[in-house]
Amino acid sequence: MSTTAVVARRLSVGYGSRVVLAGVEAFLKPGGSTALVGSNGSGKSTLLKTFAGLLPVIDGGLEILGKPIGESSHRVAYLSQFHQSGFVLPLRAIDVVRMGRFDQRSRWSRRNREDDVIVRESMEILKVADLADRPLRDLSGGQQQRVYLAQVLARRSDLLLLDEPTAGLDVPGRAAYIDALSFERSRGAAIVTATHDVGEASMCDRVMLLAGRVIADGPPNVVMTPENLLETFGIGLTKVGDQLVVTEHHHDHDH
Amino acid sequence: MNHFIDPFLDNGFLQRALFAGVLVSLTCAVVGTYVVLRGMAFIGDALAHGVLPGVAGALLMGLPAMLGAAVGAAVMVGGIGLITAKSKLSNDTAIGLLFIGLLALGVVMVSSSTELTGDLEAILFGQFLGVNHAELLMQSLALLIVVIVTVFASRPFSLLCFDSDLTQAMGYQAHWYHRLMLFLIAATVVVSFQTVGALLVFGMLLAPAGVGALLARRIVTMMLWAAAVGVMSTYLGLLASYHFSWAAGASVVLTAVTIFFVVLVGVSVKKSLLGSRS
After folding, report:
1. Per-residue pLDDT for A99 more than 80?
2. Secondary structure of residue A6 in the 3-state scheme
């Protein structure tokens, strides 16, 4: 196990030569959780994709689990925000979760008992074990999202990169998600989530507020001040009781 | 006299046609599954058309048709790769124009030569009933290559159908496996055009795999359904061709497409019945 999950120094990320987010400093430890908070276009998904090895670093330094990006892929789990062609695909829920084990074995060795146990356990944590044999295309958006999260868990990775993980989840779904996170953290995995949900971010032990640059970075109670949030989201903050709620409209993933 | 078996027992050319059709069906079942799941129908169509000028050029120079087809497919794969890399917005338009351009070029080449005019129909619609042993051998070889590559790459291929970002994030080189798929489509088209023809091979790639997509819950079962539909279409199509003197390649493809639409309607009716009951 590496001593660090993510080390970033003066990191610039973006597409091609277009910088979306610059000046990222990060030092993420195993077992820690970090929320990347910002509105659309703030660079949070771009940063996550760079961590996942999907985009090259534009400038600065980045180490994932002690290695250059892309070299620790079998120890990293990435949950993307959108999934392609989910509805024609002839896959059962269990097949999707099993995919998470694909690169954990050599190309020629078949799935073994350990894989089966891990897949089963991951589906139980996300409360989708009873959906195992159902075709993915017959599941609701929230159920599908839980299956994708079970796939992430099945990787037993050391770094989880989750883009809008609670999108489409109902209340029991969110509870299962929180169980899953504590399960992963107790194993020593580091978690990075991109979200625009301030409530979700406040459960992490570190928050980075992003808007093309790093607005603030630190523990949630220190960082998430009304001033900082206003600077991050621009407009659309309302106070409900003693909680800050972002009223920016959410994406609907259940097309 | 048995109308269903005797034609095949009595005629060597029909036996060879059946054998060739089965090989094409099995190859198309595997490759077509990925074409359908990855939404590459348009690219598959483009590849199928791209072989025409290659074949025409080869025939004009007195070279083997299959060599020309391979060159045509390679140009098409390269062209698609270049277009995909250059622009994200106008993919459809650019690939569409590339394949129509190549098709037009092929027709111009064929029409300019008096000795090739008769071959145009054979290239486009195949010569199912004129398949020889060398072609059967090539098709067996192609099937073998397709199966080996698919077994070798089954995990990244499944991942690509699911999500190309995830494929890359898990350490598989997504663009290489995408190219490998294009290569398999090209290889299928190149060895199949002499049987079902450059235009109709596309039907054998799509229709049986389409039935599989409607019925299967897993990718492997989708391939098995596709293989079953392909083989059945070959048999029924050849039989119809024999009894009613229909063009063989077209009869086979027409059967496959008919099965697809019958299953599509069946599945929709079943769904709406189940829906109204609950």
Report:
1. yes
2. strand
